[in-house]
Amino acid sequence: MLRLILILTVLLALPARAQQEQIVAGLSQNRVAIDTTFVGSEILVFGAVKRDRPAPDSELGVVIVIEGPTETVTVRRKERRFGIWINTEEVHASNVPSFYAVATSAAFDDVVNEEANTRRLVSIDEAIWILDRPDIADTQAFADAVIRIREEADLYTLKEDTIKLDEATLFSTAVQLPSNLVEGLYTARIYLTRGGFIVSDHISYVSVQKVGLERWLYNLAHDQPVWYGLLSLAIAIAAGYGASTAFRMLSRS
Amino acid sequence: MQIYLPIAEVSVNAFLLLGLGGLVGVLSGMFGVGGGFLMTPLLFMIGIPPAVAVATGTNQIVASSVSGVLAHLRRKTVDLKMGTVLLSGGLVGAAAGVQLFAYLRSIGQVDLLVTLSYVVFLGIIGTLMLIESVGALLRSRRMAAPKRKKHNWVHNLPIKAKFRTSGLYISVIPPVLVGFGVGVLSAIMGVGGGFIMVPAMIYILGMPTKVVVGTSLFQIIFVAAFTTLMHAYENHTVDIGLAVLLIIGGVIGAQVGTRIGLRIKAEQTRILLALLVVGVCLNLALGLLIEPSELYSIGTEG
Fold first, then answer.
1. pTM of the complete model
2. Alpha-carbon A63 to chain mean position
3. Binding-face residues of B in 8-67 toward A, CB within 8 A
């Protein structure tokens, strides 16, 4: 009986919470084109909070997560063996995002509480996990290493307090995409929180693709590798011959 | 000027790549080495993924070697017959090396073995060359006639052939074996193999220094072209955009280098090459001995 009441309460409470405040959002671009002069890009995420009743008292927060396509990676650790540093242990991690940018409207821990973070996989350390292995005691160290290395390469970022929130209704932020982007479908998740709990979310997608010459060369390299290889060699031989001839003419004159 | 590379998937400064190609091209023209043993580590340093750096490096080597060998052909300092013999061993060796590389990759120790083979080979060759060439330089200072070994084990093998340009009458077995060994190493290490080939030709085959550089360049063209095709076909890691920029710098550099190489004495060339080889070796050895600042590494393939 008690369980039934609990379930009913949850069922009734959920839609009520979801309806109370909703996110209406947009992105400045849904398509990022990588061409020869691509040096990175910027995505402007903006939106508003739609309410059908007065706003509650608890603290309003916004979290925006832009996540790149996931990949399977091998993480290796070096150890000193016979006096030199060599790779000894390795673990595989699947579904590791190639890019992960988090922006918040205040300090992360104030906007999203631990429970909500764990349940909705908001922060990067929640998004990456490695299966425990009996032979390796500290698999967490490998997950930490992935985050550390990618943070250093600016592929994983946490920008706290960068979302502008106007009159508890309008919000906007700009997320930088670096030049070493992986192609694919990127997701932009927006969470609205009240007192650390997620009350509404919104998801949209950004497609990152090579275009023009980049696209053509990439496709050729994968679909016609022999011709691509021969083309590379032809360029190399022609350039070598051309330079040699040009220099001979220069030194003669 | 930033340029986005289609295969490497990074954006880099075009002038940096042109300069890098030019620098390596000068060394390549001077010493008859493809320069891959310098180019590959330099490309790692500027953030090109290792697999792309190795494969694209071989394509650049083709260009600078073609450019360099043409200058040598005009001066008749290429032993085409010897080059062809070396090449026959080299292609078989490269094919075997690619298989070995794939195997090492599957057991996850390819980085270590590549670095270790660099350290071992560069160390041994560099030290020997340094000792020998300093000795030769001192002898020539004293105006003493350089001692040239008339006979060693190389001269006692069967299937002898005349190599007129080199002034040699030796068995074809040693050159084929040298070519094979260099082919294997060049496929594993992602280099043309000139830095092994040049000393092997001087010290094992006894070829005159004058023809060594041109002959080495001649056979490197074919081994590097073969390796480029293999990489393009099997790994899709040759980046044409990167290659073009390195090549433009490289072919110009190679022409300049060849001219510098002709102005300085052969013994001096050897000392410079020896110092370069020892320097790269020490740098790589330190990388193995000193605790790295980041113990972990991420690999995205396999």
1. 0.73
2. 14
3. 9-11, 47, 59-60, 62-67
